[in-house]
């Protein structure tokens, strides 16, 4: 079949001729032959297919290969680019590709191909699973994502033929996923073009208005920019710095983001032009910086040295903002020619210059570390949409550089905490962390890190991740590791709770749980689509399945459920059930309170006081409400809220804290609201039961400055 396709494809399109001419400058003859073979094969496979632009379909894979040719990628990658759609859009199989072009080409094409033949419940599931597959393949060979980025770039260049709704969907996906991946891999030219095209189609009206405004401003500022350019060149020449200086207009999306983030109008964005200085070596970078500082004054706080501390994608440059003529801020980047090449081509620079450059090796090491972290997140995350969420978090890094006690530099996203730092070191360190020291001082684990912080993590062998960490961690790695640990622990606890809930439901129907045999269970598991009996029981505990419905489906066929008695048999709450039983923070139930249980999807059983407003709102949905009761001899403590109004006098808080401690209770949290004469204090305390709470309240009433004291309800 392959030979037939080749013989029927004698015509070479002009764009393909241009591609072959370009690659012949650095390809060997056998590599060029592989590329031509791939072209003819792809042309034959796509014969009769046309793009929405009206062009023959082969024009698209040729364009993708041409984009990658500009990065001077190897013959295997370009061949895979020419073939990247044959598995999706034709009857060609992976085995045929492997036989014809080798396993490497076939694996790359397969990695780029979507999961078209698998049915998904929603488009979101399909999108997430496609990204998951693509990134898994990328972790094995980064060239997969390079082909995919070139594919997306050409699709974005021809997006005008799509309907508006599809344009916005594809543009959003580009801005959220593909452009950040290009940035993460250091492919600056592809990154900037994807941003511009994404902005153009996602916000078409804003794009048009901003484009018109920049064109108008361009004429007004051309003379000023020319003067600045000449002044910079002259000053560098006087300082003996051999440099190439260029001026450039900032990209529209960059201007738009600055307007949004700083709430500026276009007329208030003065620095729409930037200047780039390219020099021979690193000492010349700093010499050029000094020369420019003697020409224009630097704006404090705007200098960034990415040469001493490179970005995670290998980017190196000096960034500075200077105050130019007429009060115009001038952004200047100073870098070497080698840094400029890596800045434009990123991880792809490896295939053009097969050198032993330390910069390239370091860049690939960092890229491999990122890909390895992706694999860890993949292994920790079973849900594709959850994985995509973690990926998006990691694709928008800030510039927070922190130090380990040994002096190693870690780059973390803006907003990262000590917990994120712990997981960045190692998953085991994160799972066992109990405290942190930042710059030698004790600090809470939720403390947000700042540039230059020196962080030390303290661990304990029996410590476990806290679910509360999920509310403030900033990295996908930390979030996925915490969820994986909690999910593993929670599953065993969920199975036990699900069994108790099901047994209660069966007993309420007058059925002895011991009479349910393996055949009935096998039938039910098969019909429900669950993976196993344990998985079904866990679903009951997490609210994904209702215990009453499962109990009815377990009834022996032929027996009428309506005739079965319904005696009440409440679930006993012991307080030791773990994460599958939660105590509502709206009403803080404690032993001694009359309680009810609400089954919430993905949360499990949530215990409320019977008079809680949340219960009143949901009582109509009786199938989600369970009868529960407290067990005997409960030894753990529970959170409870109290509020008090006190006279503003010195030492009142200390006396309140002393009385609480004397009553054998701990303070978990306290907030205060003050006016001129009185202060209202809100406490979260640890208490054993209602009797213990009453004892605490009696002790507090001895303090004469307390004018009002009550337990928090709702």
Automatic annotation (TrEMBL):
Coiled coil location: none
Gene Ontology CC entries for this record: plasma membrane
CDD domains given in the database record: ACT_RelA-SpoT, HDc, NT_Rel-Spo_like, TGS_RSH
Q: Does the record bear Lipid metabolism in its keywords?
A: no
Q: Which UniProt keywords apply?
A: Hydrolase, Kinase, Transferase
GO BP:
guanosine tetraphosphate metabolic process; nucleobase-containing small molecule interconversion; response to starvation
Query: Which ranges carry the TGS domain?
Result: 398-459
Annotated ACT domain residues: 641-714
| Molecular function via GO | GTP diphosphokinase activity; guanosine-3',5'-bis(diphosphate) 3'-diphosphatase activity; kinase activity
InterPro entries, sorted: ACT-like_dom_sf, ACT_dom, Beta-grasp_dom_sf, HD/PDEase_dom, HD_domain, NT_sf, RelA/Spo_fam, RelA/SpoT_AH_RIS
Its EC number is 2.7.6.5, 3.1.7.2
What is the top-level taxon of the source organism? Bacteria
SMART domains linked to this entry: HDc (SM00471), RelA_SpoT (SM00954)
The record, for PROSITE patterns, names: ACT, HD, TGS
| Gene3D superfamilies per UniProt | 3.10.20.30, 3.30.70.260, Beta Polymerase, domain 2, Hypothetical protein af1432
> Which residues belong to any copy of the HD domain?
57-156
> Which Pfam family, an example, fits this chain?
RelA_AH_RIS
Record keyword Hydrolase present: yes
The entry assigns this protein to a family as follows:
Belongs to the relA/spoT family.
Q: What does this protein do?
A: In eubacteria ppGpp (guanosine 3'-diphosphate 5'-diphosphate) is a mediator of the stringent response that coordinates a variety of cellular activities in response to changes in nutritional abundance.
* Identification of the protein by name: Bifunctional (P)ppGpp synthetase II and guanosine-3',5'-bis pyrophosphate 3'-pyrophosphohydrolase
**Species the sequence originates in:** Nitrosomonas nitrosa
The protein's gene is named spoT
């Amino acid at each position: 079949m392959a030979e037939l396709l080749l013989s029927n494809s004698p015509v070479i399109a002009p764009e393909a001729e241009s591609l072959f001419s370009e690659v012949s400058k650095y390809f060997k003859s056998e590599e060029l032959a592989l590329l031509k073979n791939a072209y003819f094969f792809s042309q034959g496979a796509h014969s009769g297919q046309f793009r929405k632009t009206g062009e023959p379909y082969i024009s698209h894979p040729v364009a993708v290969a041409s984009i990658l040719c500009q990065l001077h990628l190897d013959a295997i990658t370009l061949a895979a680019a020419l073939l990247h759609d044959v598995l999706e859009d034709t009857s060609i199989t992976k085995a045929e590709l492997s036989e014809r072009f080798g396993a490497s080409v076939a694996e790359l094409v397969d990695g780029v191909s979507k999961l078209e033949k698998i049915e998904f419940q929603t488009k979101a599931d399909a999108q997430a699973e496609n990204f998951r597959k693509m990134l898994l393949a990328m972790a094995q060979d980064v060239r997969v994502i390079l082909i995919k980025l070139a594919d997306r770039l050409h699709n974005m260049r021809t997006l005008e033929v799509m309907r508006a709704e599809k344009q916005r969907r594809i543009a959003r996906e580009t801005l959220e996923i593909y452009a950040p991946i290009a940035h993460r891999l250091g492919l600056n030219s592809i990154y900037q073009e994807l941003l511009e095209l994404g902005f153009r189609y996602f916000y078409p009206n804003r794009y048009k208005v901003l484009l018109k405004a920049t064109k108008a401003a361009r004429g007004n500022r051309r003379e000023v920019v020319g003067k600045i350019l000449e002044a910079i060149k002259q000053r560098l020449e006087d300082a003996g710095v051999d440099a190439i200086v260029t001026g450039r207009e900032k990209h529209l999306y960059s201007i738009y983001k600055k307007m949004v983030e700083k709430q500026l109008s276009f007329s208030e964005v003065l620095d729409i032009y930037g200047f780039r200085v390219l020099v021979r070596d690193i000492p010349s970078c700093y010499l050029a910086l000094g020369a420019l500082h003697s020409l224009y004054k630097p704006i404090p706080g705007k200098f960034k040295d990415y040469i001493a501390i490179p970005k995670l994608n290998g980017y190196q440059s000096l960034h500075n903002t200077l105050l130019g003529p007429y009060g115009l801020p001038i952004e200047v980047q100073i870098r070497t020619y080698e840094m400029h090449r890596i800045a434009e081509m990123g991880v792809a620079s490896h295939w053009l210059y097969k050198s032993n450059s330390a910069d390239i090796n370091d860049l690939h090491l960092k890229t491999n570390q990122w890909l390895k972290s992706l694999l860890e997140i993949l292994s920790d995350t079973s849900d594709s949409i959850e994985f995509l969420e973690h990926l998006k978090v990691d694709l928008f890094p800030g510039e927070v550089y922190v130090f380990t006690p040994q002096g190693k530099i870690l780059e973390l996203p803006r907003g990262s905490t000590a917990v994120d730092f712990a997981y960045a070191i190692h998953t085991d360190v994160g799972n066992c962390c109990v405290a942190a020291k930042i710059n030698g001082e004790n600090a809470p684990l939720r403390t947000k890190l700042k540039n230059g912080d020196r962080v030390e993590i303290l661990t304990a062998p029996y410590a476990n991740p806290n679910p509360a960490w999920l509310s403030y961690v900033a990295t996908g790695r930390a979030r996925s590791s915490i969820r994986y640990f909690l999910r593993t622990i929670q599953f065993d606890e969920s199975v036990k709770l699900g069994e108790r809930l099901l047994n209660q439901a069966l007993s309420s129907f007058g059925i002895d749980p011991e009479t349910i045999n393996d055949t009935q269970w096998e039938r039910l598991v098969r019909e429900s689509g669950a993976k196993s009996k344990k998985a079904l029981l866990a679903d009951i505990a997490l609210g994904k399945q209702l215990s009453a419905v499962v109990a009815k489906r377990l009834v022996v066929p032929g027996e009428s459920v309506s005739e079965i008695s319904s005696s009440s048999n409440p679930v006993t709450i012991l307080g030791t059930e773990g994460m599958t039983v939660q105590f509502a923070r709206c009403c803080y139930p404690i032993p001694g309170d009359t309680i009810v249980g609400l089954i919430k999807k993905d949360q499990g059983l949530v215990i409320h006081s019977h008079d809680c407003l949340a219960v009143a709102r949901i009582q109509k949905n009786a199938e989600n409400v369970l009868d529960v009761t407290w067990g005997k001899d409960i030894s753990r403590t529970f959170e409870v809220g109290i509020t008090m109004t006190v006279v503003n006098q010195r030492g009142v808080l200390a006396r309140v804290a002393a009385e609480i401690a004397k009553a054998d209770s701990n303070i978990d949290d306290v907030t205060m609201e003050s006016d001129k004469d009185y202060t209202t204090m809100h406490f979260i305390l640890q208490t054993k039961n209602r009797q213990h709470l009453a004892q605490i309240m009696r002790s507090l009433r001895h303090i004469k400055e307390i004018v009002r004291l009550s337990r928090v309800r709702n």
